[in-house]
Amino acid sequence: MQRLWRIVLISAAVLASVAATGFGMAYSLGAFAEAGRFGAVPGCGVLEPATFAPVVAAAKVESDGDNCTATDGQVQVNVGYTLVTKRGTVGGPELASRYLTAVGGGDTETLKGVGDQAIRQRTQAIGAPQIISMRVSNLIVVLSVVNLAGGDLPGGAEDGLVKVATAVGARLSA
Is the distance from CB of 103 to CB of 95 less than 8 angstroms? Predict the structure, then answer.
């Protein structure tokens, strides 16, 4: 009877070590890394002209591949997507978060309640563009607003772009 118990215990120990080795190999190959919600970029179909109303009242929405533009001839809002896929043991959402953290810095501000994570950058270029980069799971969405005439942005455009980004983030999160 003791011999039978020894065989059972040794067999259980061998099986446990094989299982632990298997799980360790699967982890090291990234089997447990979160891929993220998005397998492809959503395109411009998720953007309605009303989404851009806080910046461009009568927006004409056009698409060029995965990039979308809404303009009234004077002010233009651009939306671009970048899909981040998992690499090794690091999931897509984590890599996207690391990217935004690396991009954020001196002239950026963190925006709360916009997507899963968002930053705003103000530039000193012609047309006074403002850029919001946000993350929704493993998707990075970059929104920018610019005055096509080259002057300052119209009043309310900066806050309006935050409203547009919030609406896009909510739409993508749904």
Answer: no
Q: What is the pLDDT of residues 11-69, one digit of tens each?
A: 666 655 655 554 555 455 555 567 788 988 888 888 888 889 999 888 888 888 778 99
* Paired tokens of 170: 């909510």
Burial of 84 (0-12, 13-18, 19+ CB in 10 A): buried
Q: What residues are paired with 62 via a beta bridge?
A: 69
The mean pLDDT of the chain is 82
Q: Are 85 and 35 in contact (CB under 8 A)?
A: yes
- According to DSSP, the β-strands at 67-71 and 130-136 are unpaired
In contact, 143 and 119? CB cutoff 8 Å:
no
Please tell me the distance from the alpha carbon of residue 161 to that of residue 93, in angstroms, as a whole number: 23
Q: Please spell the DSSP secondary structure of 18-86, one letter per residue.
A: HHHHHHHHHHHTTTTS---S-SS---GGG--GGGGTTT-TT-EEEEETTEEEEE-SSEEEEEEEEE---
